Each structure stands twice: as structure tokens, then as C-alpha cells.
Amino acid sequence: MNNDRLFKKILVPISSEFYSKKVIKRGLELAEIFQSNLTIAYIMEEKTLHKTEKLLETYLPFLDKTETQKEVIKKERETADLIVFEEANKLLKNYTIYFDKKVLYGEFSDVILSEVKHHSYDLVIIGYQKACLLNYRLIDTLKIPVWIETEDTEEAPRDILLGVCSNLAPNKKVPNISLILSKLLGWKLHILYIVDTEDTVEVDEKGSRYSKDRDTLLLSGRNFVNKMREKGITAELIQGRFENEVIKKANEINPRLIVIGREKKQRGKLGLPIRNVKRKIVEKSKHSVLLLN
Amino acid sequence: MRFILLIDGMTHSLNEPSDIKKQDIFSLIFAFVILLLSIYLPPSYGLTRNSQIMIGILIMAAMLWITEPIPLPATGILIMILQPMLGLIPADKVFSSFGNQAVFFLIGAFIIAGAIEKQGLHRRIALGFLKRFENNPRIFTFGIIFSSALLSFIIPGHGVAALFLPIITSILLAMRVIPKESNFGKISMLSVAYGSSIGSLGTLVGGARNPLTVGILSNHGINISFMQWMIYAVPIVLIAIPVVWFLLQIVFPIEVLDISLAKKKIEEQLAAQGSINRDEVKTAGILLFTIILWFLFSNSDFGLAGIALLGSFLLFLTKCISWKDVEQRLPWGIILMYGGAITLGVGLEETGAGGWIAQTMLTFMRGNPFFIILGIILVTVILTNVMSNTGAVAVLLPIGISLAYELPSISPLLASMLIALSGGFAFMFIIATPANAIAYSSGYLSMRDLLKAGVFANIACVIIIYTIALIYWRGVLGL
Asked: What's the whole-model pTM score?
């Protein structure tokens, strides 16, 4: 894997519902490291316009409604230019790269999915805030890496990158990419191998799942951890619920980034079907997460 | 409604979603099931058949106004259709109650507001006010809430919010205030929403629910003049504005220190307005003349509506407004909605359903007037926050008046004022009032911010109106 060109085209979408300076900074930083083409896209959320339009339907006459909508759109365009892009330009002075800018309209996830489909990006960096009502459907549907940058927390994170492997994923991408990122970003790498006690399967590179008993899974885990340690990487084996153990460990070591692979967890408590494990981790975690998908 | 948006050379069509959503179908079915139950279940608990059906119509209307599966005015139309169709009240009586002078007052007031907006007079007044509050960021936000409240005395509150949206956003953009992050941005937009809502209580022009109240009261032989309304309502506005502003400062401490860019932007906008033109002078003169007539003669035979229509006629005569402008600027939906609400009140009274609801409520409240006053305020504030404040007042007013007839210690006027004014305290959700929706659409505040500020503002305003009701209205004015 070519370390310098890990991500060739990076997309940083900024929603009109949630502006994060940290995301732009991260986008510029990664684009500089990997010499990537960077696009910052300001997305005007259609739901804001539609919601307002419906609420004003009875009260404002046609002319006022049209004028109000025009004002909202004008203000959004100006926000993109004067706040988002201007801020990015200011930050750009510290870097040697440049970025493309776009103003798009639609639902956050839909716009990103369409952009990725038409412009072959290989990394999307988005901001995340719990109070924000954005639809983060793309976390489950995007097939390329998604970096979810959380807002600043009270306690500053330590320069650690937590790579998460488990019996639920092939564990090829996470160790490699985590190692590259940790070197380039200057963060210490900590690999965690979780044997999920609720979904006792092994997943191969094609995503096929094979039932295994817990001892076999623990043995595979031990072998994996030993291999990592041989390479001089800090690694540990844990068993429990995948999502809980990730959060627990992250709270314990307070990393700058958690890297998660193509985990395919399908069963939860009492063997009942489970969905959106990655989204749950993102929602519960205080830390930034890179989903390698 | 449809409009085209051009972004980076791409054409995006913004169509209003025409598909009926599942939740809309569910709401419609639920509302009609309630109506059908009221029709087909045998009358019980001392209700007559007609009063039971009328209560069914009331609940159905409230459901439709809360969930809005159909436009608000369409529910107003449905109320008018159902009453004669189900044999409750003859059609001529239903439609004659629609001819209430409150409806024509609204038409006249909207035409006058339309002329003010067309001439840009409201913008000039707003900028003129704001210019006097440029000392520091805190005072500036007071300027916003105060100016929007005062302007809501002469044009409807939602019109004021729509006016302030571009003025304030252009200032915030010039100051590079970050949307949803800056407390200054949040307070500025909340001041627009809350200022116009509180200000709309002050006069009969500010909110359409005010003339509705006057209209329904006149059906009971109680006539309120323009000045009387102000005597009752203005003290609440004058107390609520500084209190709410102060609470906003506590909830969202302002981080901005320099206001010079705002000053510059206001100067620019004032310069762009140019000097006052002849049409603006004519419109301002007619407005002033109309207000004087409202003060002096609104309780005479000429009446509120007659004066409002005279003002409108003078605007047509002086070419300050054309019929085309009226077609574009008049929210006909509100007229239909209020017509429906007035007929709802008549129906509840005629069938005895209003009296039945009032008696049932009294058994729970044990007849204590202090509890009942607080109860009326709380129910109205809760309802006005979860549905359009127009709908909330329309549903509660007939019940409140019936309640007052059952209880000698509360007059119908007091009950109506409590409902009409508490109905303006729609601070917590964007669905509650167009002013909140407009402020939210600016992008400077989230729904969470609105809820956070709204809870405090609502508690403060409940205390204010309760105190005013007991001390000023009952104690001093003898309501």
C-alpha cells in the first residue's frame, strides 16, 4: 500500500444544519499529508427549507413566502462563502495544498452518496454532534472510509490511535491503515482485538460468516495479538459485546481516533438480530471514529 | 409552491412534496374515527346527540390542527361543512357567523399591512429603531426584541419576523457570526421570534387571534374597542419584553464584544433605503389616520372593521396599493381558518357542548378561581406550543367562555383575554408560530436552542400573565 497516496480524493461535506471548523481543519491536514484532492462541499439542507415552507403556508401570503425562501437561500449561500469557505481559506495559509468548493442542495446523506458515486472520492470526513438532527444514514451505506470527527470534549484526547479488530471482520485493512495513519500523524498505535460473545462467528475477506465456538475465536484472537506484538505494536485481547468494549476501551485510553473495519455483527442480546452497530458506536463515543467500510 | 434554485450552474427544483405521507393518512383516519364515534355511539354523560357530535368535531379539528395532514384553512372549511351536514346548525346560521366583523377587520388590517410592506415602510421603521441600540451587543439584542415587538403593534407578528430575517442575517453575516455556534447569533434570532410573538399581543392588528377573540366576544354582547384591548394587553408586553430578553442573556451568554460591523451594516441598509418617498408618506399618513380612528371610534357603530376597511379604501384611492398587490400579499388562508373557528364557537354554544365541557372541567378544578385562571393559562400555553397558536386559541376560546358562564368569579372577558394572550406565548417549538419557523430557517439556532430558551421564556410569561390577571385585570380593571 502506497503510504503517501492512501486517500487520493477527499470530500468534506458541511451541512447547513451543523458547521464544524474541526472537520475543515482535519480535511486540510489529511489532504496535506496524503497530497489528496480536497473538496469542501456546503450542503443546504432541504428539510429546513421544506419545513419552513410548510409552516408558513397558511400565514404568509405567496409573495412573502417566496421572498422569505429567497432570503433563506441567499443567506445560506453567503454563509457558505463568508463563513465556511473564508474560514477554510484562512486555515489554508498553513498548508501547501488547495481545495475545490461546492454548494449543494438536498438531504445530507443523499447528497454525499451521490457525490461519492459521481466523483469517486475515497474518503469522506464529516462532523458529528449529538444534538444535531442530521440523518447519518450514510454511515451504514457508504462503501468507502468515513472519518467522523467529533467536537472538542472537556478532556483533551491523548496522541493515541485505537485500531479495533474482532472476530466480526477480516482484520486486514484496520491494522495496515492504522499503522500508516499512526506513523504519519505521529500518534501511538494501540490495537484491540475483541471476541464478540454475542455473535460467535468468524468473517472472511468476502464477508462470509462461519459459526465458531468461543475457544476457537479466542485462539484466533490470541494469535492475532501475538502477531501484532511481534511487530512492536501494543495489542490486547478482550471478550464481550463488540460495541460496549470499543466504547469502554476508548474511554479508558482516550484516543484521538478509533479505527473500525468491516464489522458484520448480526446478532445481539439473546441472539436477537442487531443492526447499525457502527452507528451506535459513533453515537455513543466521545471520540473521532474512522470507519473503513 | 415551486421555485428553482441555481447552485454552481446546476438547476435544482424545489417542489413541495406532493406525496401524502403515511403519518398524514394515519392522522386523517384517526381524526375521522373520532368524529364517527361521536356520531354513532349513543350519547352519554348527560350529553345530547348534537352536543356529542359537536365535541367530536372539536376534537377532530384540534387533531387536524395539531398534526396538519391538511392545510390549516382546509380544517376551517371542514368545520363549516360538517355542522350543517350533520344537522347540528342550519347552513345560513353557520355562514352568517362567518360574516362576523372580526373577519372583515382582519381583511382590512391585512391590506393595510400589505401596503406598509409594499412601500418598505416597515423596513425603514425597523432600521430606524435598530440604529438607536448600537451601544453594545447586549443592547443591540434588546433593540431587536424591542423593535420587533413595537412593529408587531402595526403589522402581524409573522410579517415582522419575515422583515427582520434579512436585516438581522445580513448583520450577522457581516460580523462573521457562526451559525448555531454563536450565542449572539442565537439571541439575535430568538429576539426576532419572541419579540414579534410578544409584541403581537399588544394590539388587535398584531395577531389574528386578537380580532378573533373580539369577534367571538361580540357574539356574547361584549364589545372591546381598540384602545381597551391595548389597556389590557400592553402592560404584559412591556413587562414580558425586558424579562424575556434578560432570560435570553442568561441562557445564552453573549460572546461578541464588537458591534461596529453591525453599525456599519445598518448604516448601509438605511442608505440603500434612500430618503422617504411620497408613497411612503401617504401610507404612513393613512396608517396614522386609521389608528386614530381605531382609538376614537372602534366602539361606535362604525366599528373596528369599518375603520380597517376605510383605511384600506384610502390606500387604494391614493394608489399606495393595487388589487394585484392585495392578491399577492393577503393570507386568505387565515381568513378561512378564522371563519371556521368562529363557527366552531357558535356550534359549541348552540348545541350546549361548550357548557358541558366547562361543567366537566369545573368538577376537576373544584371551582377555585385562582386554580382555574392558572389552569386556563397553562392549558393554552401547552396547546399553543404543540400546535399553531391560531388553532389553539380557536379551540380553547369557546370552551373558556362557556367555563366563565358557569363560574361567577370569572367573567367571559377575563377568560377570553387569558386565552388570547397566553396563546401568543408560543416559544418552544417551530410548529407553534410562523415567527419561530422563520427564526429557525435563518440557521442560527437549532430546535434544541429554541426549546431551551422557550422553556424559560414560557415559565416567565405564565408568571407575568397570572400576576397581571389577578392584580391588574381583576383587581384594578375589575374584569
From this structure: 0.81
Q: Give me the residue label for grid cell 453573549.
A: B254
> Contacts from A111-114 at CB under 8 Å and sequence distance 24+?
A111/A13, A111/A41, A111/A43, A112/A11, A112/A13, A112/A43, A112/A138, A112/A142, A113/A138, A113/A141, A113/A142
Q: Number of residue pairs across A and B with CB atoms under 8 Å?
A: 134
**Among A81-95, A266-280, B165-179, B248-262, where is mean pLDDT lowest?**
A266-280
Residue that the C-alpha cell 355542522 belongs to: B83
How far from each other are the two terminal CA atoms of chain A, in whole angstroms?
17
**Distance to chain B for A77, nearest Cα, Å:** 9
A105 forms beta bridges with: A44
Q: Is the pLDDT of residue A100 over 90?
A: yes
Q: Which chain B residues have a beta carbon less than 8 Å from that of A16?
A: 179, 443
Three-state DSSP at A125 gives: strand
C-alpha–C-alpha distance, residues B114 and B314, integer Å? 13
Chain centroid to CA B468: how far?
20
Calculate ∠ Cα B405-B406-B408, nearest 5°.
75
Residue B74 makes CB contacts below 8 A (sequence gap 6+) with: none
Which residues of chain B have a CB within 8 Å of the CB of A132?
A: 446
Determine, for residues B441 and A72 on separate chains, whether the beta-carbon distance falls below 8 Å: yes
Place of cell 454525499: A112
Domains of chain A, CATH where assigned: 3-150 (3.40.50.620), 160-291 (3.40.50.620)
